[in-house]
Amino acid sequence: MSARALSESSFASDLLSLTKPRLSGLVIATAAGGMWLAPGELTVPRILVTLLATAGTVGAANALNCYWERESDRFMARTANRPLPSGRMEPGVALGFGLALAALSLPALALGANLLTAGLGLVALLSYVLAYTPLKARTSASMLVGAVPGALPPLMGWTAVTGQIDAGGYVLFAILFLWQIPHSIAIGLFRQDEYAAAGLKTVPLERGEDSSRLQIVLYLVALVPMTLLPFQLRIAGAWYLAAAVVLGLSFLGLGATGLFRSLGRPWARQTFLFSLLYLAGLFAALMLDSGGHG
C-alpha cells in the first residue's frame, strides 16, 4: 500500500472513530428492536433507510461530542488516543463531519420513515450535543439528561413503523432510560480517577460511593418491573417474561451485593459488564418472543 493510500485509510478510520462505532452499534441494535416489535407493515427499504439514517444521526451526535470534549478527552486513558486529543485531526474537520452527517441523516429519516421519527432524531441530537455534553463538566445530573437521547432510538424504531407514540414505544423508551443509570454510575465508579482528571462530574465524585451503590439498586428496582410491561402489553410472550425476570433479578442481586457489602471498583466493573449482557439478553428475548414481526 502506498503512503498516500495508507494516509487516506488512516484518515477514514479516524473519521469512523468519531462516530464511536461500538456505542453506535448498541444504539442501532435497540432501534432495530423497536422496529421489529412495533405492530404494522415492515418493509426492507424502510428498515434499511431508518437504520442507516439513525446510525448517521447517532454518529453525528458522537462526532460533535468528540469535537466539544477534545480537551477533556486528553485526560482519560480510554479517550486520549482519539483523533482530536491526539492531534491527528484538526477540530474543524470533526465539526464539519458531524454537521454534514446530521444534515444528511435527519432529512433521510423524514423521507424514509416519517416526520415524527425525524423529529425524535433531532431531539436526540440536540439534547446530546447542546445539553448533555456541556452539563457533564457542571453536574452529575447530566447523566439523567444524557439518558434521554440514549433511550430515544428504540422509540424511533417504533415510530418509524407505527407513525405514532403509544404505550409500547413509551415502555421501550423507559426501559432504556432506566437501564442507562446503573450502567453509567458503574462506569463512574471504576473510572473515578479519569473523570476527576478530566474535570467531569459524576455521581461517585459528587455524591460518594455509598450513594452511588444505593442509586444503582434503586434504579434497578424501578427497571425490573418496567421490563415486565412488554408481556402485559402483549408485545412479547411468556418466554420473554421468564427471561426478563431471571435477568432482572440477577442484575438486582449483583447491585444489592455491592450495596450491602460496600464493594469497590472490581464489583463496579463487573456491574458495568453485566449491564451490557443484560441489555443484549433482554432485547434478544424480546425479539425472539415478540408478538410483532417475529
TrEMBL record:
Keywords: Cell membrane, Heme biosynthesis, Membrane, Transferase, Transmembrane, Transmembrane helix. Belongs to the UbiA prenyltransferase family. Protoheme IX farnesyltransferase subfamily. This is Protoheme IX farnesyltransferase. Coiled coil: none annotated. The keyword Manganese does not apply. It is found in: Cell membrane. Converts heme B (protoheme IX) to heme O by substitution of the vinyl group on carbon 2 of heme B porphyrin ring with a hydroxyethyl farnesyl side group. The gene is ctaB. InterPro entries: Protohaem_IX_farnesylTrfase (IPR006369), UbiA_prenyltransferase (IPR000537), UbiA_sf (IPR044878).
